[in-house]
Structures are given as C-alpha cells and as structure tokens.
Amino acid sequence: MSTIRLTQKHDLPPEEALKVFERFEGEISKYGVKLSWVGLRAEVKGMGVSGDAEVRPGEVALTLKLGMLAKAAGVDPARLEASLAKRFKAAFEGGTT
Length: 97
Known about the structure:
Elements: E1 2-9, H1 14-28, E2 34-38, E3 41-46, E4 49-56, E5 59-66, H2 68-72, H3 77-93
Antiparallel strand pairs: 1-5, 2-3, 3-4, 4-5
Helix pairs in contact: 1-3
C-alpha cells in the first residue's frame, strides 16, 4: 500500500480554506474520490483509496492511502502524488472564494 501525504500553507481563515479545499475536492471527485466533512476534518473514500483531510490554521493536509485496487488499476503513486501536489498548491495559492 502506498501513502501520499500533502500539506499546503495558506493565510486564509479556516472557513475560507475549507471552501478552497471543497473546490479542490471537485477536481479529484472525477476520479471517484469523495470527502465526508465533519467540521474541518474529512474522511476520504473511493475505489482503491482511503485517507483523511484536515483544515488547520495556516495549513491544510491531505493523506491518501492507495490500496491494492489502485495498484491493480496501474496507478503510479509517484506520478499521482506529483499531479495532486501541483493542483493542491495551485488551489491554495489562488485560493479566495
């Protein structure tokens, strides 16, 4: 099982950072990934992936655990991490609602 951990600094109030995170979630939902939010924390679920997300003061974090199904589907963890990191950074660098 591969694990992808992403963090991104921000200078937004937590509620605004959550809105930006939710827009980022829209980008990754096309891959069948869903985030179930409770406050500023979320559980990540999808076909062959699980994990969690969190909005913290000054930082957001996303952890994805790729299961056997993702491996069987040919997902390259390093390539996926690079792609997600680029999108995550872009979301929060331009991140006002």
